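Let's practice the habit of predicting before peeking. Look at the sequence and jot down your guess about where helices and strands might fall. Then scroll down.
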Amino acid sequence: MPTIDVRGLACPEPVLQVRRILENLEPEEVIEVLADSGTACENITRIAKTLGFTTEIQPAGEEYRMMIKKA
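Done guessing? Here is the structure:
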């Protein structure tokens, strides 16, 4: 499972990085995204949904672990 670390990146870079990966993801493939911003999580969730993916967010202290897969 690929992991994308967008911690410390300013908007819109986290969304752009995740979108590039999602556009090339195979069906049933899952990616993990590590983020440190609630705003980044919201924006990544929004673009993932638009592209037909589901997102599960697991808070871990001040950071977030997101699992994204094709819906």
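How did you do? Helices lie at 13-22, 38-50.
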